[in-house]
Specification:
alpha+beta; eight-stranded mixed sheet; 12 helices; 22% strand
Length: 364
């Protein structure tokens, strides 16, 4: 795998597009304002979905986004359950897939609680029920808010353009950004057509926003005592914490209805964003060649961008502290190291999570 080829990929895939940083920042701020408006209406309609914090995650905020700023990932912490002493976690399918027990005195709608009767007695009534039901209701209420805003022709006006709502599909928000061109008398004197092709501003841009409900993990100390968590990241864990999200595990190809999932997305954002430019370039090249091309439904292994990110984290930071890639090797050397790591894991059908080393992301 030659350096010339990899550098060519980096350029021809428009990974190296010269972004108009002001417009990119404005788009991100516009997305934030749109989300805040939607969540404000949502809180009025259904207080159970009051959001305590909007946490940025994903490639845009990690500095590894390939192409235009058209995808954003945000985690929303539920205010009612994210305060101290609101919940406790209990063993589910594993320590990383726990059950959530709501503490006495905390009011939460019964429709989202475990609803099972044994011999006429309501068992485990203080535990949250299926995460799927909570997520379904969340998006049902989001749709109501969007319908109301669309009827009022809601549009966010910004300095360089406008942002409006687009009907969403597959539990994902979509906005339309339109740039406000100001060339009143033709093109500027130094207009460069070839340069303009690889630069923002864009005439219009459809923007997808993934929203993930979350609850603050109630005990950082308990995470630090788990054997799978790498202890040299303790400081980052205390700074950013971790969260529990409505994502069930699978056993025998069946979703386990009442498990939630412990995620380290907030910590991942920081460690990826701090990767050096050389490794970010390697990551972007490989992501553009692999992740987007094999995102096939019902695939037997999840070789998603997150799997690739995990492999790069192990490459850069190592299995243990101080064992990662410490010098800027050639692009091909680092990329081959990552591919070999993925190949070995595929052979053994095991892919550890970077912050939960005893968990196999391709199965329990």
């Amino acid at each position: 795998m030659g350096e010339e080829f990899l550098n060519r990929v980096y350029k021809t895939r428009e990974i190296q597009a010269e972004e108009n940083k002001k417009e990119t920042d404005e788009i991100e701020q516009g997305v934030r304002q749109m989300i805040e408006t939607i969540l404000g209406r949502l809180k009025e309609n259904r207080p159970v979905f009051d959001v305590a914090a909007i946490l940025p995650t994903g490639s845009f905020y990690e500095g590894t986004k390939v192409g235009a700023p058209q995808e954003f990932d945000l985690m929303l912490t539920l205010a009612k359950l994210s305060k101290p002493d609101r919940i406790t976690l209990h063993p589910g399918c594993s320590v990383w897939y726990p059950y959530i027990k709501v503490q006495p005195g905390v009011e939460f709608p019964q429709e989202f609680m475990f609803n099972m009767f044994y011999d006429g007695e309501h068992k485990d009534k203080d535990f949250l029920g299926s995460p799927r039901i909570l997520v379904q209701e969340f998006w049902k209420e989001i749709e109501k808010v969007l319908d109301s805003l669309r009827k009022s022709s809601f549009e966010l006006k910004m300095r360089q353009g406008t942002m409006s709502l687009v009907p969403c599909e597959n539990r994902k928000l979509q906005f339309l950004y339109r740039h406000k061109f100001e060339y009143e008398s033709g093109l500027p004197e130094k207009y460069d057509a070839e340069r303009e092709k690889s630069m923002y501003p864009v005439r219009f841009l459809y923007i997808d926003v993934d929203l993930m409900l979350a609850i603050d993990h109630p005990s950082v100390e308990s995470v630090l005592h788990m054997s799978g968590f790498p202890k040299h990241f303790e400081e980052l864990l205390r700074k950013h914490k971790c969260h529990v999200i409505p994502k069930s595990c699978h056993k025998d190809h069946m979703a386990q209805k009442h498990c939630w999932f412990v995620t380290f997305s907030s910590i991942e954002r920081e460690v990826v964003s701090k990767m050096d430019l050389h490794h970010k370039k390697c990551y972007k090249i490989l992501k553009s060649l692999i992740s987007s091309d094999i995102s096939i439904s019902r695939k037997c292994m999840n070789l998603s961008s997150h799997t690739l990110k995990t492999a790069f984290l192990f490459h850069v930071y190592g299995e243990t502290q101080g064992t990662g890639c410490s010098n800027s090797k050639t692009l091909s050397t680092c990329i081959m190291d990552v591919l070999n790591y993925l190949s070995s894991n595929l052979f053994h059908t095991r892919m550890p999570c970077f912050f939960a080393r005893d968990m196999n992301t391709w199965g329990q």
